[in-house]
Amino acid sequence: MGFFSSLFNRKKDDKEVVRSMGKLSFLEVDMHNHLLPGIDDGAQTLEDSLELIRGLNTLGFNKYICTPHVMADLYPNTKSTIQAAYTSLEETLQNSKNKAVIFSAAEHMIDEQISPLIDKDNLCVMPGGYVLIEMSYLAESNALFKTIMDIQNLGYKPILAHPERYNYYHYNFDMYKQIKDAGCLLQLNLLSISRYYGTEVKVAALTMLKSGMYDFVGTDLHHKKQLFALQDVVAKYPVRDLLRTCTILNPTLLDHMEGNNSIAVG
Question: What's the predicted TM-score (pTM) here?
């Protein structure tokens, strides 16, 4: 059996799975993931979605804010496409008797599509009035601070996804402080505390953790390879201890979730 065949046929009773069981329950909500099927580079089928959710269940998650990409060139999702994928997965969860609760939002790329969405107040907003945004990994967006301000002017609270992964900030660490000072919250990818994305990303994540800069934590889970990596990370790293330096707001999302399972289609 080859490496990848072995990887994708791992047993659920692997040591890493057992050692990671329930360890993320203190976070209450996974607020960044790609669990909705067939609309971006995350889960491609309902079966994929269920498998990923079952894996996250073992880690202690039972509530999920699903954040598919809204990206003009690759994944031009709308509230309607996201709602359709949400409805399909919600029905499948009910039929499978999985008690996971899902909510719909999005991860908005700062590109040419985001300004019209802001102008029409047509963003996919998370429970609590948060809006998840991201930038290209290749180059900083010149519109970052304008986008932060425009979202705030609508009465929403912007969250920048995985800032530790933007390599162009690794040698200009003051940019993270400037983003925070602008009122933008920061979200850590759990895999970033390992070398999954590379050593520089890990160093940036641990430095930001020590500086108390993160506000939210997400899995950013796309596929089974990442699920297995996440199980390994949770088994081997003292995640809760690493996060003690930050005021992590994931549990506060529960206050906003009741009766708010899906985005309004406009």
Answer: 0.91
